[in-house]
Amino acid sequence: MPCRLSTLLLLIVVLGSSLAVFGGWVGAVVFLLLAAAAAFLTWPSCLVAMLVLLPFVALLFPAVHAARDTVYQMSCAKCLTQISLALHNYHQVYGCFPPAYVADKHGKPMHSWRVLVLPYLCQDGLYNQYNFREPWDGPNNKKLLNRRPNEYACPSDDKNFLTPGATSTNYVAVVGADAAWQGPTPRKLADIGGKQNETIMLVEVADVDIPWTEPKDVSLDAPQSASNSIAIISSKHFSDDDFFFYPSRTVVRGARASASSCILSSGLVASKKFPDVLKIGGWREEYWHFPPATNSGGFRWTNCLAFAVWISSTGLLLLRALQNRKNASERAVE
Predict the structure, then answer these.
(1) What is residue 295's predicted lDDT score, i.e. its pLDDT?
(2) Angle, vertex CA 89, rays to CA 84 and CA 91, nearest 5
(3) Could you state, in order of their start, the residue ranges of all structural domains in the chain?
């Protein structure tokens, strides 16, 4: 009984450390493979091979993580492109882009551009149910919050994207006197001129609770402490040069007035020139390769500890499996 209990506890430690090191479904798969190896281990050479290969398997995790985020970034870019095309289709019909918000008679923001472009995202039914006679958070319109279109959520933001009934948006407009949007006054393509490819219209935000119908975006004119300042621009995307034991560097997706997506590195977002980048004509092609922000947190010590626990518990599990098989063979001989 003590032996079985200790083996069960060891399996729990291996499972926990596998999830901590590899995360989610990858950690579960690694644990199942280790459990299978422990169950069917028959000779020492197999054990040696497993102990040699396990560290290399662990070091492959960043590649798996990067591949997953590449898919997420492609999905994010697709969302931004779809929204941008909806904005251009709106422009084709009305001769201008939608205003950042529709104001009431007192000048207070009442409706968001995200509602105005719904028909151009194939959301006519949702648009027809929206009541423009009441504000975005009125009795009727509040019922539509949990019907957020998929185009307004980034798949990298797991909490927002996967939670049933989530209401927040990950995409906001860049608003300001010198930006592509200027509040309640709509702009035309002619206002941007030949600078469409150098003008950012949309950017990402993460961990910012902005309901998708709320007329709230990022303002270049807001103070840095405000809840709608450019300080809230962020994402859950990771750059492709991350390493598992170091703090992750993030990149932010954006969309230009030409309906093409772009990447804003963490270094660019944190730089003093970033407000100018968001103005009409402020984007430059060399910003694709703007250096990321310097890692300031050193090692991820918790990850290092989890990795050490995983290696130790996995080795102990396989050693115990080998010893149990050896004891079983000796008893069979007797």
Answers:
(1) 47
(2) 95
(3) 2-40+301-333, 72-289
| Position 82, amino acid | Q
DSSP code at position 251: E
Q: For residues 32 and 13, what is the distance between their CA atoms, to the nearest angstrom?
A: 13
Identify the residue whose tokens are 């870019």.
77
Cα dihedral value 78, 79, 84, 89, nearest 10: 100
* Nearest CA among 102, 95, 276 for reference residue 187: 95
Tokens of 94: 């009305």
DSSP H or E run through 102: strand 101-103
58 pLDDT more than 70:
no
Phi, psi of 256 (to 5 degrees): -100, 170
Question: Residue 334 pLDDT > 50, yes or no?
Answer: yes
Looking only at the bridges linking them, the beta strands covering 101-103 and 250-256 are: unpaired
**What residues have CB less than 8 Å from 129, skipping those under 6 apart?**
140, 144
What's the token pair of residue 70? 């590449």
**Confidence label for 242 from pLDDT (cuts 50, 70 and 90):** very low
Sequential DSSP letters for 104-143? -TTS-EEEEHHHHTGGGGT-HHHHHH--TTS-TTSHHHHT
SS3 of 244-261: the string is: CCCCCCEEEEEEECCCCE
Residue with tokens 């909490």: 159
Please report which helix (H) or strand (E) contains residue 91, including its range. Answer: helix 61-94
- Residue 246's pLDDT band (cuts 50, 70, 90): very low
199/277 Cα distance (integer angstroms)? 8
Burial of 68 per CB tally in 10 Å (0-12, 13-18, 19+) = middle
